[in-house]
């Protein structure tokens, strides 16, 4: 372990010039025999680099591990190679030898399975824990370094490559989903369509291994009770990003390293293994592929101009690993200590000697590139210059909405300080950073060198924004439930906050939350709010601070004046940004403090009995509740503040590397792809319990109504998510939108056959009205593999007889005359954007129909492929037309985000007269 500190700090400790392209280790499997005549009398040099067999010349290797060697001894020898991928190099470790020689034991553990026992753990689980320890130390040492780890798990079985973690693999059906191998323009060998799963700690990587190992081909033979019938390849991609030290630069350097951990199937004497049928065919394929591997080693050792990589699937897949210019490789050859296996032992040693003769032709190069980060919504954040403000960042782990990122400021102990919750708007780059200036001004105004501020601030990233998980529509669709859950976590005793502060859509969320639950806050303050149906705000009795910019057409002051009319206890301010461009920055915090002082005597900062500081006092931060974990540094989210204790380098602690901190490890994938969850496999006992529970269910999961025994046969159990829907909900919801489960928080893609859907009828069928089904949504595709830009195609279609005259696409609904009109089918709008965006669809009907325009409020979805919704439009039938003497209303609005979320029957709209 002495190499650990040096290798963590710099790769200069590893001289690549002095490393052989293929280092060869020999591991001898111990024997249970007590008969000395059955055991090969190996001899070893004092430094364990020379192995001698009877009647044979001495053989030199990089290391020889006698039968008494431990799993840790093997692992310690490979540690130098583990650090190379952390700096953009490729390295490979693979196990080679005859069947039943201990290869899988070395890589995973005993019995061909992943083992996590201290003394039996194999190379792969030890490597996983060691890598995350090294990553933690590197990111802790520098705030500009960031890592992401992704893994693929593949096998070569009967000459084909299969993905061990891809969903819906079906081994019993002869594995139909084999993958193709291709080379990129740098000569790197990759497997097309192989799943890459982001992992954040060793527990997640071990779960991927467990899933893959359950699917890997193994079988009983007379030589091995759990013989590997395939070659397994675990690929660990490690990307290191180093940001510019300049706070004004978005440039970063990216290093992409790759670690291959390979467990080869063993060569097999078919006369001894007695393989028949499928086992015979597997053995033939294994032996053939290993023969081709030996031919490649022969060619490499003689520096042949032609290397036969393409002669087998295995050698093609290992081409980058065996190349003298692309990777540093360790070959761990396994041999038996029994005389009966001597022939295979000699063959293994022969080709191990050949591999050791491979010479380096050039030094492997780091894979690095310069990039400009356009996706980081946190850009411009900074370290806190005022430490007594106690600013820091956390994740709030909610049960309903996932991880919510938040910025905390101020000191709070047992809810003594008054909590202020801040909610940002819905712009594409909005996050909790929006409130940095306001929070700092409030802290400066209410604290001093001798006393802490009486206020405690929590600024959240709403779901889908900044660094928070979830759907961006959450803050629009159910603000009350979401905000109350956040409050329950940050104020678990009182279940309320002192003040809600919101801007734009965040202000609308604050208003709506107080309408639903007036007790959640004592005050409310909003700036430039979006407001819907302000007459509902008459029930808001809290003192309210309202601030409007008369020059902001996106947040019209006319609506603000209505809000002022309906909220009884308001303090209303108007300003013109054209004349007073910094009015909010200079006045918002002062107006807020005036409001507090007017209604709450204890909020007067001159009289507050807050925590007093002295020159020698040091008040520690209270411990975080169980639902919260530290998410980064003081404001700057890449720094290592209050993170987990560093790994101490000792052999005894290796088995528990960072086990205490990995369950709460900092997520280092902020700039990367969405996490792919591995498929879960249900055992027979769990399946029986689930079916028994389902049979006893008599309540609809969507509308919560009781389903009678006579109607249960007409209900529908969704095949994937297993939710139960009554007949009425199937007619009103699934029939119209057969794309995803309508149950709140589920959204599982539906897999209901059209023949089954035909059993349910459209709702509201009547001769007294016309019914038109409108389909709308968008498709999305990346413009290039290296770009963060996407091509979005928003569209509207008429699924029944086309009654549409034109569709206007409005990507800026707050401004007049901003819509783009399309007069002929297909009604589509194509835009290349960095992120999702608002796009309202305004449908103008055929002039023969005197129908009002229909506006569908929509938010273009960033989902690869397409996102589709159906809407049933109901129009009263009066001679097939609306009577022209009766003037229809100008426009009817349908908010698609509300569909079957708060009400199951909301996926229809009625066009009517004023």
From TrEMBL:
One of its GO terms (cellular component) is microtubule associated complex. Residues 700-743 form the RING-type domain. It is found in: Cytoplasm, Cytoskeleton; Nucleus. Keywords: ATP-binding, Coiled coil, Cytoplasm, Cytoskeleton, Metal-binding, Microtubule, Motor protein, Nucleotide-binding, Nucleus, Zinc, Zinc-finger. It holds the Pfam family Abhydrolase_6. Residues 21-358 form the Kinesin motor domain. Gene3D superfamilies: alpha/beta hydrolase (3.40.50.1820), Kinesin motor domain (3.40.850.10). PANTHER family: CHROMOSOME-ASSOCIATED KINESIN KIF4A-RELATED (PTHR47969). This is Kinesin-like protein. It comes from Rotaria socialis.
């Amino acid at each position: 372990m002495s190499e650990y500190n040096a290798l963590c700090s710099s790769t200069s400790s590893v001289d690549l010039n002095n490393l052989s392209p293929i280092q060869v280790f020999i591991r001898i499997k111990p024997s249970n025999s007590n008969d000395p005549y059955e055991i090969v009398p190996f001899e070893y040099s004092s430094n364990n680099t020379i192995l001698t067999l009877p009647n044979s010349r001495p053989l030199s290797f990089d290391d020889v591990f006698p039968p008494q060697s431990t799993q840790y001894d093997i692992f310690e020898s490979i540690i130098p190679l583990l650090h190379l991928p952390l700096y953009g190099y490729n390295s490979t470790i693979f196990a080679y030898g005859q069947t039943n020689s201990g290869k899988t034991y070395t890589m995973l553990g005993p019995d061909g399975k992943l083992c996590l026992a201290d003394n039996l753990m194999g190379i792969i689980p030890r490597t996983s824990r060691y890598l995350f320890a090294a990553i933690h130390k590197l990111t802790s040492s520098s705030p500009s370094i960031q890592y992401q780890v992704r893994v693929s798990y593949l096998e070569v079985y009967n000459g084909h490559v299969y993905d061990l973690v891809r969903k819906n693999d079906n081994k019993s059906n002869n594995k139909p989903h084999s993958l193709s191998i291709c080379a990129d323009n740098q000569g790197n060998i990759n497997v097309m369509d192989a799943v890459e799963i982001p992992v954040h700690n060793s527990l997640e990587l071990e779960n991927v291994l467990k899933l893959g190992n359950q699917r890997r081909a193994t079988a009983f033979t007379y030589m091995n009770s759990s013989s590997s019938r395939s070659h397994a390849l675990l690929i660990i991609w490690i990307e290191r990003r180093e940001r510019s030290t300049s706070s004004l630069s978005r440039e970063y350097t990216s290093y992409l390293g790759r670690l291959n951990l390979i467990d080869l199937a063993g060569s097999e004497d078919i006369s001894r293994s007695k393989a028949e049928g499928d086992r015979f065919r597997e053995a033939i394929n294994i032996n053939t592929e290993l023969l081709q591997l030996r031919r490649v080693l022969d060619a490499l050792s003689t520096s042949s101009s032609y290397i036969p990589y393409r002669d087998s699937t295995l050698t093609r897949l290992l081409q980058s690993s065996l190349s003298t210019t692309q990777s540093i490789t360790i070959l761990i050859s396994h041999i038996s200590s029994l005389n009966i296996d001597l022939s295979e032992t000699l063959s293994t040693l022969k080709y191990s000697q050949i591999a050791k003769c491979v010479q380096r032709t050039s030094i492997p190069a780091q894979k690095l590139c310069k990039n400009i980060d356009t996706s980081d919504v946190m850009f411009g954040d900074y370290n806190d210059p005022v430490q007594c403000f106690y600013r820091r960042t956390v994740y709030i782990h909610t049960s309903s909405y996932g991880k919510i990122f938040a910025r905390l400021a101020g000191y709070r102990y047992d809810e003594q300080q008054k909590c202020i919750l801040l909610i940002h708007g819905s712009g594409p780059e909005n996050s909790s950073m929006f409130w940095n200036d306001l929070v700092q001004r409030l802290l400066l105004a209410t604290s001093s060198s001798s006393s802490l501020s009486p206020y405690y601030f929590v600024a959240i990233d709403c779901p889908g924004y900044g660094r928070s998980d979830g759907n961006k529509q959450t803050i629009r669709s159910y603000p009350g439930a979401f905000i109350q859950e956040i409050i329950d976590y940050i104020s678990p005793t009182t279940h309320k906050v002192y003040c809600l502060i919101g801007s734009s859509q965040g202000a609308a969320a604050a208003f709506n939350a107080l309408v639903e639950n007036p007790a959640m806050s004592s005050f409310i303050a909003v700036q430039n709010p979006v407001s819907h149906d302000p007459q509902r705000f008459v029930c808001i009795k809290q003192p309210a601070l309202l601030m409007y910019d008369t020059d902001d057409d996106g947040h019209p002051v006319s609506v603000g004046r209505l809000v002022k009319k309906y909220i009884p206890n308001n303090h209303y301010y108007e300003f013109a940004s054209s004349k007073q461009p910094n009015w909010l920055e200079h006045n918002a915090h002062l107006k807020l403090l005036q409001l507090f002082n007017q209604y709450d005597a204890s909020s007067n900062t001159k009289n507050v009995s807050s925590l007093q500081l002295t020159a020698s006092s040091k008040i520690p931060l209270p411990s975080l509740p169980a639902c919260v974990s530290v998410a980064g540094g003081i404001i700057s989210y890449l720094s290592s503040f209050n993170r987990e204790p560093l790994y101490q380098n000792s052999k005894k602690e290796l088995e528990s590397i960072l086990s205490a901190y990995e369950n709460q490890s900092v997520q280092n994938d902020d700039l990367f792809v969405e996490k792919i969850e591995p498929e879960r496999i249900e055992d027979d006992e769990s399946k029986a319990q689930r079916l028994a529970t389902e049979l006893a269910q008599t309540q609809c999961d969507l509308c919560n109504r009781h389903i009678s025994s006579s109607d249960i046969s007409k209900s529908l159990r969704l095949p994937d998510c297993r939710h139960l829907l009554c007949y009425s909900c199937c007619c009103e919801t699934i029939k119209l939108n057969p794309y995803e489960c309508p149950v709140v928080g589920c959204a599982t893609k539906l897999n209901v056959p059209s023949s089954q859907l035909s059993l349910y009828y459209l709702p509201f069928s009547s001769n007294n009205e016309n019914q038109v089904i409108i389909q709308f949504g968008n498709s999305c595709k990346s413009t290039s593999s290296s770009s963060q830009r996407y091509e979005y195609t928003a569209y509207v279609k008429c699924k029944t007889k086309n009654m549409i005259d034109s569709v206007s696409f409005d990507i800026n609904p707050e401004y007049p005359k901003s819509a783009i009109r399309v007069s002929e089918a297909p009604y589509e709008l194509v835009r290349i954007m960095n992120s999702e965006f608002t796009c309202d669809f305004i449908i103008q009907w055929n002039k023969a129909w005197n129908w009002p325009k229909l506006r569908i409020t929509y938010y273009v979805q960033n989902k690869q492929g397409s996102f589709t919704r159906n809407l049933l439009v109901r129009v009263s039938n009066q001679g097939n037309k609306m009577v022209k003497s009766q003037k229809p209303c100008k426009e009817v609005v349908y908010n698609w985000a509300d569909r079957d979320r708060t009400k199951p029957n909301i996926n229809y709209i009625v066009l009517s007269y004023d």
